[in-house]
Write a structure and sequence with these properties.
- This protein is of the alpha+beta class and about 220 residues long.
- It is about 40% helix and about 25% strand.
- The protein has a seven-stranded mixed β-sheet with strand order 1-2-3-4-5-7-6.
Length: about 220
């Protein structure tokens, strides 16, 4: 008997915060053994997810906030997600402010927050540079059992539409160098590599040479 499968693309709500937390953690791991949030957050998987869930639902808006995400649901179950934003609106400074909220919610001490940034700091050497008002697509991840079903394709179409609606004329997305499957998938959506940053300190910690930026017109 064939089971009916219903796919819907929805704007994330506060109820999606636990899934957004998983997506954020998974996306930054990419093909790596440890991703940005693994360096930032010193604890087990449950702690990392609990912190990222708090971060996704802060009063302060930022690029990891649930409101930036679109979610693909299969029969009502969140299965895949990504986000889009303007760096000028929701970039680094807003995340730092949100981090203070999340620290308070989760009882994360200031000393640990400082130590976490020092552990993750090598990524600062390879952060992408974006043109003014570029629509940045980020935090792309799908539950393992739902991969290769075209969910990200549907989400990508919608997030790019959102960027056009906000007046963006270009969109950027980044990959860790070596994640060739992700790069090929994004190239199918019209993205092409335009720059990359490499740094030995980053490679020593993250075990990948750097970050490659892809761009397309909207």
């Amino acid at each position: 008997m064939q089971t009916d499968t219903r796919l819907t693309i929805v704007e994330a709500t506060p109820e999606h915060a636990p899934f957004v937390a998983w997506v954020t953690l998974t996306a930054f791991r990419s093909q790596l053994e440890r991703g940005f949030w693994d360096f930032m957050l010193d604890g087990d998987e449950a702690y990392k997810l609990r912190y990222l869930e708090a971060l996704a639902a802060t009063e302060q808006l930022h690029w990891v906030h649930y409101s930036t995400f679109l979610v693909a649901e299969v029969n009502g179950r969140p299965t895949s997600a990504l986000c889009g934003y303007f760096d000028e609106e929701l970039g680094g400074p807003t995340l730092r402010l949100a981090g203070l909220e999340a620290n308070e919610k989760t009882g994360r001490a200031e000393e640990e927050a400082i130590a976490g940034f020092e552990r993750a700091k090598p990524i600062m050497n390879v952060l992408p540079e974006h043109p003014s008002r570029a629509w940045i697509v980020e935090n792309v991840a799908t539950l393992p059992e739902f991969r290769r079903r075209g969910l990200v394709d549907r989400l990508m179409e919608r997030i790019l539409e959102r960027g056009r609606g906000r007046g963006a004329t270009v969109a950027d997305i980044s990959v860790f160098i070596g994640n060739d499957p992700a790069q090929r998938a994004y190239e199918k959506h019209g993205f092409a590599a335009v720059a990359e940053k490499r740094h030995p300190e980053f490679e020593a910690e993250y075990r990948t040479p750097g970050i490659r930026t892809l761009r397309r017109a909207l």
